[in-house]
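Support request, please re-run this one:
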Amino acid sequence: MTSTLRAPDLGENVESVDVVKVLVAVGDTLAAGQPVIEVETEKASVEVPSTLAGVVTEVHVAAGEALRAGDPIVSVAVADAPAAEVAAEPAAAQPAAPDPPAPAASDEVVETSQPRRPAPPSLGETLLAPRWVAPEGPRKLVPAAPTVRRFAREVGVDITQVGGSGPGGRISIDDVKAFAARAISRAGAPPGATGVELPDLAAWGAIRREPMSKIRQVTARNLSRAWDTVPQVTNHDLADITGLEALRQRYRGRVESAGGKLTVTSILVKVAASALKIHSKLNAAVDVGRKEIVYREYVHVGVAVDTEHGLLVPVVRDADRKSITEISVELEGLSARARGRKLGPEEMQGAGFTISNLGGIGGTAFTPIVNWPEVAILGVSRAATQPRWVGDRFEPRLLLPLSLSYDHRLVDGADAARFLAWIVEALEQPLLLALEG
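Re-run finished. Output below.
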């Protein structure tokens, strides 16, 4: 009998994903759990495994096509099984959880708390998962009718940011429209749009157009949102890492034998994690709707990785509890998977602070954009040997430029300066990590 494997529900308000590769052909013997296609998500490519076993009789998709929920992927001749149509699921998918109880009122929905380390997501969740996962604890109650929620999604408005004018703070469509109008006034464009049409560039010569990858689209959208949402300031400083570099060279072989690379980035992850435990404001988030500051009690550090597909930011979880060697080994694996586009969406979620190191490329300083809902990001440029006055003479010292951008709604200049000074001192006096980290 023949069964058809179909694409699962991709998630709310998502119409399609792009097929990157077809991994099977007609006549192939297919095993349950074997990948059949590779699709492009917003931040990585994901292999879709089969839930069927048998011989492939027809392939319904091709590379470059858009795949929608319910579309057929492959047909399989399954022995001793009735004809059926099933949706693909991850090989490690967990049994579906029972439906939550219906809310007491039809026009109010309570968003329940999410665990800090979620169970393996379904394929639809995997394709759609945003970079950020809310910290453990109750999430915001949003009193709005389903029609209002749907309207907010259609116009690109985050309904949790909208203030309600109705009884008990109930949100109406007019409230959403007013919020969108204010966003247009501030940014000059609807949320997520550029608002400015390009002139006719072909009038001055030949041009070439290429479609933006999903990674680039998401990067553009997220950075535009961060730029429009967060009033940002950047502090700069220099760290004398002459002694640290000598230690790094001395011990890098030990870390390599453990499977990692002892880099300035891996050291900075540990230093920043230790600093965030002391300067907790830079590991917090601003909840404008509730007029609250949300302090994370965990320390997850995102590390920007430059790939040929675009910028990806895998996350080192509980970096404050790990040694530099453990961080180095983990970063090596995360970076390799990022460059191979094999990162799972859960590996790019939940960071409270980000590090972006451009030192391998060059530059003396830059102003990184805060990755909302984080409130700070550390930019690292190329270290250079410069003369520095030490005691009674100039000496050649290896100086590392650091640039800290921060959300000025929460972090004052003095807070940022103290945080950056702590990092500088830790890099210059590594014993400080053992004493206070």
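Residues 90-139, 188-194 have pLDDT under 50 and may be disordered. The domain at 231-436 is CATH 3.30.559.10 (Chloramphenicol Acetyltransferase).
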